[in-house]
């Protein structure tokens, strides 16, 4: 497994899959090992995927300073990876919470980024979080599914702050566009792949300055793809569209039938959308 040293000396790992022009990939979670990204639905047939294991996850070492798990500080690890790879400018793809890292990196180092592909992105860095009404709308649209009633009831208990572990388990099928064997296995792997202590530190005080981020995004002229899932409970289409509106000229794609992991729900549609964007951005 290839690796490199971060600015603070922490040994970090990454994985290389596929061939073609390099695409640096930042995982979400927050703080989930990059293994859950797989080959991004076959995107590795079009691009060389450079999958970063964030510090304390996957093959990367636990840092000496736990405060370095904070989102804005993780930007330096992406910079160190770019330097290690010897790339002048990077095409950067990020999923979910990783989008916060990618956005802050692009704001801090705009000349080092060729394009941004943000997949079912979290807008936390810009102060954008979905509300219960937006999530209820997604749940309502999925009422024909066999697990809808149990999931909807579980969501209401979660929203009321009275959730049990079983409620999160009941809600899990709605994180995916289809609850098949691949989705079940993907979901089951999540706990082992995630560093919960690091996740708790990811959004610590000082990690985000939403007003400054919004202002900076308004002047960011980079090509940006914002790809959401029409059935995404975690990042409903309405909040994804609002996030895309913060960029001067983002391409918004809402993938029909997709949940929070669109490369699993319809790999062909996902890879087609990302590849088309990257080809045009070159």
What does this structure look like?
With 282 residues, the chain is of the alpha/beta class. It has a single domain (3-127, 193-281), classed as Rossmann fold, CATH 3.40.50.1820. It has twelve helices and eight strands. It has helices spanning 71-85, 98-108, 132-141, 148-159, 165-171, 181-188, 190-193, 196-202, 210-218, 237-244, 262-265, 267-281, and strands spanning 3-5, 11-17, 22-26, 48-53, 90-95, 113-119, 224-229, 251-255. The protein has an eight-stranded mixed beta sheet, with helices on both faces. Helix 3 (132-141) runs antiparallel to helix 4 (148-159) and helix 4 (148-159) crosses helix 5 (165-171). The protein starts with a strand and ends with a helix.
Short description:
The chain is α/β, with parallel strands linked by helices and 282 residues long. The chain has twelve helices and eight strands.
Which term fits the overall shape? Answer: globular
- How much helical structure, as a percent, in the residues? 25-40%
| Structure annotation, total helices | 12
Main beta sheet: 8 strands, mixed
- By secondary-structure content and strand pairing, the structural class works out as alpha/beta
Radius of gyration, rounded?
18 Å
Spatially, the strands of the biggest sheet line up as: 1-2-4-3-5-6-7-8
Topology pattern, helix = H, strand = E: EEEEHEHEHHHHHHHEHEHH
Q: What share of residues are in beta strands?
A: 15-25%
State the CATH architecture.
3-Layer(aba) Sandwich
Q: Tally the beta strands.
A: 8
Q: What is CATH's topology name?
A: Rossmann fold
Low-pLDDT runs of 5+ residues are none
Number of domains: 1
Distance between the termini: 29 Å
What is the residue-averaged pLDDT?
96
State the CATH superfamily name: Alpha/Beta hydrolase fold, catalytic domain
What is the top-level CATH class? Alpha Beta
């Amino acid at each position: 497994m290839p690796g490199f040293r971060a600015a603070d000396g922490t040994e970090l790992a990454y994985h290389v899959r596929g061939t073609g022009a390099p695409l640096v990939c930042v995982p979400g979670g927050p703080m989930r090992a990059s293994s859950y990204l797989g080959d991004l639905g076959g995107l590795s047939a079009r691009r060389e995927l450079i999958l970063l294991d964030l510090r304390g996850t996957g093959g990367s070492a636990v840092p000496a300073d736990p405060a370095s798990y904070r989102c804005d500080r993780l930007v330096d690890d992406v910079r160190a990876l770019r330097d290690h790879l010897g790339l002048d400018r990077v095409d950067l793809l990020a999923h979910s919470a990783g989008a916060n890292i990618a956005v802050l990196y692009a704001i801090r180092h705009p000349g080092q980024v060729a394009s941004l592909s943000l997949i079912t992105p979290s807008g936390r860095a810009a102060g954008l979080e979905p509300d219960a009404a937006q999530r209820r709308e997604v749940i309502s649209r999925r009422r024909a599914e066999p697990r809808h009633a149990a999931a909807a009831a579980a969501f209401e208990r979660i929203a009321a702050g009275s959730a049990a572990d079983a409620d999160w388990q009941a809600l899990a099928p709605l994180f995916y566009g289809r609850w098949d064997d691949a989705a079940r296995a993907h979901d089951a792997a999540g706990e082992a792949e995630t560093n919960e202590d690091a996740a708790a530190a990811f959004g610590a005080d000082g990690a985000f300055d939403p007003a400054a981020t919004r202002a900076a995004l308004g002047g960011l002229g980079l090509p940006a793809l914002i790809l959401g899932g029409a059935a995404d409970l975690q990042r409903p289409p309405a909040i994804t569209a609002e996030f895309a509106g913060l960029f001067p000229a983002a391409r918004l794609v809402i993938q029909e039938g997709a949940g929070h992991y669109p490369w699993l729900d319809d790999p062909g549609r996902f890879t087609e959308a990302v590849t088309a964007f990257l080809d045009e951005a070159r």
